[in-house]
Structures are given as structure tokens and as C-alpha cells.
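Write out this protein's structure.
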Amino acid sequence: MTHLLDVVGLTKVFGGLQAVNNCSFQVEAGVITGLIGPNGAGKTTAFNMISGVLKPDAGKISFDDREITGLMPHKVARRGVGRTFQITRELAELTVLENMVVPTARGGLFALFGARTFRQEQERAMDLLEFVGISRLAHEKAKNLSFGQRKLLEFASVLMAEPKLVLLDEPAGGVNPALLERMMERIQALTGDGLTFLTPPMTGEVEITGPVAAKLFASSDTSDADLFLVLRLFDPGGKEVTFIGSNDPRTPVGLGWLRASHRKLDPQQSLPYRPWHTHDEEWPLTPGAPVELDVEIWPTCIVVPPGYRIGLTVRGKDYEYDGTDAAVPYAAYPMKGVGPFTHTHPQDRPPEIFGGTNTLHFGASQASYLLLPVIPPKP
């Protein structure tokens, strides 16, 4: 498996002091990894070398299959590495919202001036402030925040740059227990990329043409849940294959979505490959109690080559190819896999309901499946 971050033999010496000696570790995508050691062990020095603040005396740093050893901090950040610091580094005289807009590639300092203010960046900033729980402080000057609130602001501002990896340098230091719990919940939520189920490698060409549907049994620890289903294609090396869509240049094979409280079916209109939801009443969930869900996925037509795999990912949020914006010139919105059609508005998806933990259930009486329209090969 390819590691998102691969550190080999990292070494740093300050005069006669060996700050880091032959440090090696790997970080996988979607995993929370801890770098543990006592004060003075060199954790911050290691972070400084990874993020480009310091150049290592020896060793190699690879990120997302590319070497970043010795790159300047801004170049490391553009590759997708974000970081926080033990002592926060917000712009004290700017408001919380202004602090959020400054780090963005589209906005920068120009985004703070009237006509050059990017509404899109402000909306994303407010979403992230809501995500970490300090949106009510958006127009407060950063210098007026408590230390714990400044930690949350720094965390949110790092996410504005849409990094693939975030280095958190002692995020719990000096934070009161209530704010610490919120931060830990938000960190865990970021890694919630769902579950992916894969077929074995295809032994020959397989044509899939027509409607697609899935049956799942799921529960939530709240009264509702959104399930996002992604039909995906992976090459023999495990890399996802995407396609140019009408609204995004990196789209999967197919997408499906269902809000669990709208799971009621019309028995007259529904077919095994096309569940028909009435949307005429809400059926709230009982926390922890599994329910049966039938989800329609867009019809598709694809020929899967030998050695490739079909995958189904079940998520609690929108599909993203790799978390980065495709950065199409003059695009009016970020392109991460679903174009502008995101489900991120806090009024539609309040985090206290849709930010919970969802669980898939399996068993003899809970037979889940994916229904694929496989076209038989010609004799």
C-alpha cells in the first residue's frame, strides 16, 4: 500500500544537540496517527522538517508519492500539507472570518477588500467555523478569543486550504476539557470516509450497463442520517479511476444518496433496481436501532478491464476524489468530485443530527447487497 506520508531516517542537529535522530514512520490516508514522546523528544522539530520550516540534515520525506524533502513551507502547503502550532499564530487585529479567508489560494489578502471578497470563500469559512463550533464569533477580533477558541480557529483556518494531511502540534495543550472534546470530535469526523467494499480483480472484461441499486441496514446515534453511496472503479494498483463529468473533471462511476428519515417506499412504483421513495412523511430514526434502506444509484455504462475492481463506498458525507480541488481555471466553484452539488449547508444538515456516527449492520436477517446490471458476454 502507498503511504500518504513516508518519513525515512529524518535527522536534525543543532550545534551539538541531536534534536531528531534517524526518525522513520508512515501515515496512511484517512487514519489518525500519533507521534508520541516526552517534552524535548523532537516532535515539533520533526513537524518543522515535514512542513518545510526546517531542512533536515539527513533523511527523506515523501508525500502523496512525491518527495518534499527540503521544500519551502509554501510549496509543501500547496502539495496538501497543513499544520497547526503549539502557540497559535492568528492575525490578532483581524476578525475570525478574515483570518479564515486569508489562507485560501483563491482569496489571500485580496479577499479582504470589498469587490475582491470571494463569497464562495466566505461561505466555506462559515461552514468550517460552524464545523468547529465557533461560527457565532465570526465577526469578533481574533485577539478577543480565549486560547482554546484560538486553537479551534487555527484548526479551521488550516482546513480552508483543503489539505490532504494536517499536522496537529499539541492540539490539546492549554485547552479546557469542553473545547478539547469538541476538537477531538471534529478531528475524528474529518477521517470519516466511510467503508469501501471491493470485488475481486476481474478475470475478464465485464460490461455493466443500466440502473444500479443497493440495500443496506444502518443505524445512527442520532435521529437521522444521510447515506452517500459511491460506485467506483480501481485499477490493479489500487488507484481510483475517475471520469470527466458535466460538472466535475473527476467523477466516479455512479452516485446515490438517501436521507434515512425519507426511506418510505411506494410499493406500486418501486422495482428491485429502482426504489421509489414517496418523500411524503418523515420516519425519524431511533438512536442505535437499524433500519432497512434502499438506495438508487445513477444508471451507468462501463466496461471493466481485466484486473480492475468495482468498489462501493458508503459514506456519511459527499464523495471527494482525494480532498483537493481540481483547480480548473476560472471555475465558479471547487471541483472535488461532485461539482457544485454538495450537501454541506448547516441549515439542511445540522451537525448535531448529521454529524453523528452511523453504523452498518450485517447478518442473516440483514442481507445487504449491491445490484449491478452485468451484461453477459457474447457466446
